[in-house]
Amino acid sequence: MTTDQTTLPDCWEKFQQVLDNGIDRIILFGPPGTGKTYCGLHHGNVEAGAFRLVCTEDMTNADVTGSFMLEKGDFRWVSGAALKAWNGDGTAGGRLVVDEIDKAGGDVFATLLAMLDTPESASWENPQNGRVHTPKAGFTAVMTTNVEEMQELPPALTDRFPVRIRIDQPHPDALKILSRDLRGIAVQMADAGERRISLRQFMSFDSLRKGLETERAAEIVFGHRAESIMDAIAVDGVA
Ligand SMILES: Nc1ncnc2c1ncn2[C@@H]1O[C@H](COP(=O)(O)OP(=O)(O)O)[C@@H](O)[C@H]1O
Ligand SMILES: [Mg+2]
Question: Hey, whose CA ends up nearest to atom 8 of ligand 1?
């Protein structure tokens, strides 16, 4: 997918530029709700498929590489997201989007590191049949995290992802989902530190106010800050 370059905020333009110029490992970091995961899954060349892995403490290597599952009395290999992305469409490698890699436990983290290694060094052996897999050419990985300081991530990981872009604004295509009067404030509030209000909250407000009184919709979504946010929307509207 391509987006009109002239309208892109700088952070999203950088993302487009690195994708267009052969960078295959990218970290997108910054406040939640700006479109990091969405754009990781859809932007650049994702013709061979895009696969998402959401890291949690409870995940296992089955989520990453795969596992044998019993199906109708037979064991069948079910590939995990990273292996699926390595194999892509069978000819070209696909995209792996790893959300919140910092949440992965030790064992899974080690597997992920192996799957994200440089293409020349990466290989993985299926424990059941001994078949050795390597990433197909074209495999790309985008990692997303809310961690602000890259030093907080393990060096083994950041070593593999030399390009890191801080996303400080919602993607313009995501903003288009919002009614016009909310777009300005959604941009202002996306990276407002502790006062941050996410794009998803504005989306909920936008939807609720179609059926409810505006004040009620604001109270439900913004709580005690409803009044000040309503004022800000009004000011933004006349600006
Ligand atoms: N380019 C886009 N086009 C349409 N919708 C988008 C786009 N980017 C994000 N969205 C929507 O915006 C919301 C937040 O995006 P998400 O990727 O989950 O943010 P993040 O990963 O930064 O927390 C989601 O509802 C998503 O579907
Ligand atoms: Mg995300």
Answer: 35
Alpha-carbon gap, residue 76 to 63, rounded angstroms: 15
Q: Say yes or no: CB of residue 40 within 6 Å of ligand 1.
A: no
Instruction: Give the tens place of pLDDT for each residue, 161-219.
Output: 999 999 999 999 999 999 999 999 999 999 999 999 999 999 999 999 999 999 999 99
Beta strands in 16-127 (DSSP E): 25-29, 50-54, 66-71, 74-79, 95-99, 124-125
Fold of 5-166: Rossmann fold (3.40.50)
- The span from the CA of 133 to the CA of 193, in Å, is 43
Instruction: Please report, for the chain, the start and end positions of each structural domain, with discontinuous segments joined by +.
Output: 5-166, 177-238
Ligand 1 centre from 197 Cα, in Å?
A: 14
